[in-house]
Amino acid sequence: MDLKKIAPLAGVAVVSLSLLAGCGGSSGGSSAPAAGGSGGAACPLATAADPGNSEAPSGVPTADKAPKLTKTSGLTVAFSQNASNNPWRLAETASMQEEASKQGIKLTVTDANNDQSKQISDIKGLIAQKPDVLFIAPITEQIANVVKDAGAAGIPVFLLDRDVDHNVAKPGQDFVTVIQSDFIQEGKRAAVQMAAATGGNAKIIELEGTTGASPAIDRKKGFDDAIKECSGMQVVVSQDGDFTRAKGQSVAETLLQSHPDATAIYAHNDEMALGAIAAVKAIGKVPGQDIKVVSIDGEKDGIKAVAAGELYATVECSPRFGPLAFSTMADYAGGKPVPTLIVNKDQLFTKDNAAASVDAAY
Ligand code: AHR
Fold first, then answer.
1. From ligand 1's centre to the CA of 108, what distance in Å?
2. C-beta separation of 140 from 213 below 8 A
3. What is the pLDDT of residues 197-223, one digit of tens each?
C-alpha cells in the first residue's frame, strides 16, 4: 500500500517522502550494472537523519460498508496466521493470544505454514465455523478473494500486518481495516541507514521478502526509490529470500558468489539478514566490515547482531498487534468510526540503543 497516496493529517509534522518518487531496482535475481559514481559526497542520504515513522494518514475513509459487529460479549474470534517459522510470527501470535486471554475471549488460531493454498483453505474452514470476527495476517496480496468471501459471509474481517489486493477486496467494504506498519517508510529508513553505513557508496545485494507479500513489495519500493538520490549506491542483484533465515542464507551464498564485488546486503527482514551474515562469514568476509548489512524487524537476534556490530541497523516492524487489534475490534463493535488503514509506530535499532533494547525484544 502506498501511503503517499493518502493526504497527511493537517497540522501534524510530516515526514518527507520526496525521495520515494518512482519505482526501480532490479528483481527476481536479475543483475544490474555495477555501481558507478564515487558516491559519498553526492549522496544526501549518507548524512541524513533517520526520517522516522510516517505520520498517521488522514483522509482515510472509515469502514462504513463492511459487515457490522453488534455483539460486544461472548465473541468467538479466529485468527488466520500465515506462518510460524520465525520469531516475528511467533511474537505476533503470542501477542494476539495474550490479549484475547486478558479479555476472556477464546481465540481460534490457524497456521498456514507459509503456504498460500493452506491459508486459503484455513480461511475457508474458519468461514464455515462462522466466527463473530476474523483476523487475518495474509501471506501475500493474492489471497484477496478469500478475504472477500469472508466479508460476503457477513464476517467482519480485520487484516493484520500485511495487506491484500484492493482491486479484489475493498477496505471498509469486504474487510473492515488493515493494521500494519508503513513498509515503504521502513524501506526508506533502511536506505538512510545503508547510506550512513557505506558513506553512500555501495554495491548492494537485496534479499526480498516473499514474492507478492505487501511488505516485500513496499520495502523494495521504499529502499530502491530512496537510493536513487545516490549515484554511488546501486542494487546489483535482488532476489526472493522468502523472509526465512535458511533461504536468506542460501540465496546470499549464491549471490555473494555471483557478485564478489558486493559491499552491502539489504534484507527485508532480520531472519534473512542473519542468514546472510552467516553466508558472509562462510566466504571468509567480515559482516559489518567487508559487507555492511541493514534489515527490518527488530527481533532479539537481530538486535544482538546490531550490538555485536555485524548488522549495522534494523528498522523496527513491531509484531505486537494484540492490544491494537482487539481495541480496534471493540471500537468497531461499539459503533465508533474505524479508519480503513491504521499504521503502527515503529522505532529504529542502531549501535546506540541495541544493547539496551535486547532484553525487551522477542
Ligand atoms: O509482514 C511483516 C513481515 O513478515 C516481517 O518483517 C517478517 O519478519 C514477517 O514474516
1. 21
2. yes
3. 999 999 999 999 999 999 999 999 999
